[in-house]
């Protein structure tokens, strides 16, 4: 497979990087459980296997990539700490990993990010600088923070260390569930989907990989159809973790390995989130409900298949649940 011209081949992680990441982060993350639901199997006509990263350290899969990046730093590079921009889960995951290593973590977060996620970042020792809720503001404010601190930039998803770390999730899932036909995960910037592509294309190339996205933040879907990255600056969706655009490294994996990208409406996302809480008794955030919402909407795509569904996080602001009327 040839790398796109705008990517340096050395920057594209390999499955060996996933194996190394798995060993590097083992002491800092959970091997999360896989749950099943007879109700959802009957409802969809598929066998669904929910990989519960909502039970992960820091409450989200992103702790895998963050820990791989932090604990892979040399002593010299770690001296000034790490820095990132994130709407929530990468911010708190990087803060968690940095705290475990005893180095500073500087985070640029949108002022509209859920208060529960801001509180978690501060709880792990992260230092927050707020920005406006747009990609352009986020990147501009981050440039100022990094210049002032000299911290090592760990991008939320367009980073080979992060992608390799996220790839450990599907490596575990493949070990936990035999005979998978497909795996589906939410897509925003594409870090989890890229890690899934990296791993499964290497160890289970027959498995189809689907990405799930909100209709109101469907830039990955439109990019996939167009054959090039289309970026939205500030989409509005309840799925706050999926508002960011693809970048060149994640686009490499999405464009080469994803079978299809499916979308769901805001109401379909809310309904899927609510029914999962009711039936499976697990806390999940709106971004994580998008895969199930798209399965329920496209039953014919998954009927009769064994499908891994990655529940990516459970960091919810309980005071602002979408089905509670104010």
Features:
Rossmann fold, 45% helix, 326 residues, disordered N terminus, four-stranded parallel beta sheet, 14 helices, 15% strand, alpha/beta, six-stranded mixed beta sheet, 2 domains
- Secondary structure category: alpha/beta
Total count of helical runs of at least 4 residues: 14
In quaternary terms, these chains amount to: single chain
User: Major sheet: size, sense and barrel closure?
Assistant: 6 strands, mixed
| Number of strand elements | 10
Distance between the termini: 52 Å
How would you sum up the global shape?
A: globular
**What is the C-alpha radius of gyration, as a whole number of Å?**
18 Å
Following the backbone from N to C, one meets helices and strands in this order, namely HEHEHHEHEHEHEHEHEHHEHHHE
The fold-level CATH name of the largest domain is Rossmann fold
How large is the share of residues in beta strands?
Answer: 5-15%
Bin the helical content.
40-55%
Q: How many structural domains does the protein architecture include?
A: 2
Name of the CATH class of the largest domain: Alpha Beta
Averaged pLDDT: 92
| CATH architect. name of the largest domain | 3-Layer(aba) Sandwich
Looking across the biggest beta sheet, what order are the strands in? 1-2-10-7-8-9
Uncertain residue ranges: 1-10
């Amino acid at each position: 497979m040839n790398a796109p011209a705008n990517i340096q081949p050395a920057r594209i992680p390999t499955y060996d990087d996933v194996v190394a990441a798995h060993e590097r982060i083992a002491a800092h993350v959970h091997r999360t459980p896989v749950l099943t639901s007879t109700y959802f199997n009957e409802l969809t006509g598929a066998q669904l296997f929910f990989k519960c990263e909502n039970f992960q350290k820091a409450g989200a899969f992103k702790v895998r990539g963050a820990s791989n990046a932090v604990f892979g730093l040399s002593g010299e590079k770690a001296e000034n700490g790490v820095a990132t921009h994130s709407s929530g889960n990468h911010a708190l995951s990087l803060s968690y990993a940095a705290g475990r290593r005893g180095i500073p973590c500087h985070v640029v977060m949108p002022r509209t990010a859920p208060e529960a996620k801001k509180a978690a970042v501060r709880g792990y020792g992260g230092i927050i600088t707020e920005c406006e809720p747009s990609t352009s503001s986020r990147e501009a404010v981050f440039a100022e923070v990094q210049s002032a601190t000299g911290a090592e930039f760990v991008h939320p998803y367009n980073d080979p260390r992060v992608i390799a770390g996220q790839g450990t999730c599907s490596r575990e899932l493949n070990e936990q569930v035999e005979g998978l036909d497909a795996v589906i995960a939410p897509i925003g910037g594409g870090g989890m989907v890229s890690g899934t592509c990296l791993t499964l294309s290497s160890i289970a190339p027959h498995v189809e990989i689907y990405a799930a996205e909100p209709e109101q933040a469907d830039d990955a879907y439109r990019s996939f159809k167009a054959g090039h990255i289309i970026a939205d600056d500030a989409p509005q969706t309840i799925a706050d973790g999926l508002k960011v655009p693809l970048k060149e490294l994640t686009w490499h994996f999405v464009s080469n390995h994803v079978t299809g990208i499916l979308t769901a409406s805001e109401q379909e996302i809310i309904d899927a989130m609510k029914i999962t809480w009711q039936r499976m008794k697990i806390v999940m955030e709106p971004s994580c409900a998008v895969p199930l919402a798209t399965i329920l909407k496209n039953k014919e795509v998954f009927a009769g298949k064994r499908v891994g569904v990655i529940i990516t996080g459970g960091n919810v602001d309980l005071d602002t649940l979408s089905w509670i009327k104010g």
